[in-house]
């Protein structure tokens, strides 16, 4: 008796295999076209209703806004705060905004609205001093000195050790005493927490970032570079590659990678709601472009 499968079974298996490949190819293609489609988001019904009713009043300043007030960092009257998601983050975030950055066009505000306890926004040059905390703070910025997210803890530990050596580098103190103190401090530093406590983002066009990045208050900080990803931002900067992310995208992708690379936990959508406003506006504009609805595009802009 032959152990070879019948020809028609072979053909069926080949056809099934091809079907799976085609399905996978189509899924990949759709995901590439709409990378925000698989997010685990809270219901956006409140935004749908707000979009239909149009601009509403800010309860703080009285300004007419769509969805939220970009000067007061609060939702407007027709977007009740209890119907918005609140996101818990694993660390604090400081956003430094360029003074020429248009408030109404910034996505940084989304982070402040959705994670208010964890996010602060500062307008340059009024920014905090970070020098004393350089072993627990990092700046997201690409460059030759930047490190990957998975290497953050290692580099923070090195900073702690360097700070110990600098502290004990006193020429007036006897060498033996200096050496003993340094050894003791280095041993103590090994047990010191090397967890990143705060991450800083610059909110500006890429042409404006240099002024903020070169500020001496940021120069000594550890620089972190994000993995390459493509932006979905509808206000993409002309002449720049599509890997230049909007601020809320940069924050979101940083946290996703931090969760898996540093916290060593499986990512299950914990920070997806940071894109609550962004994904809704993206879809609105995408639909408006397809239908030629200029009014909707004007409303969002």
UniProtKB/TrEMBL annotation:
The keyword Glycoprotein does not apply. It catalyses: a uridine in tRNA + S-adenosyl-L-methionine = a 3-[(3S)-3-amino-3-carboxypropyl]uridine in tRNA + S-methyl-5'-thioadenosine + H(+). Residues 164-189 have a biased composition (Basic and acidic residues). Residues 163-189 are annotated as: Disordered. It is found in: Nucleus. Pfam families: DTW (PF03942). One of its GO terms (cellular component) is nucleus. Belongs to the TDD superfamily. DTWD1 family. This is tRNA-uridine aminocarboxypropyltransferase 1. The gene is DTWD1.
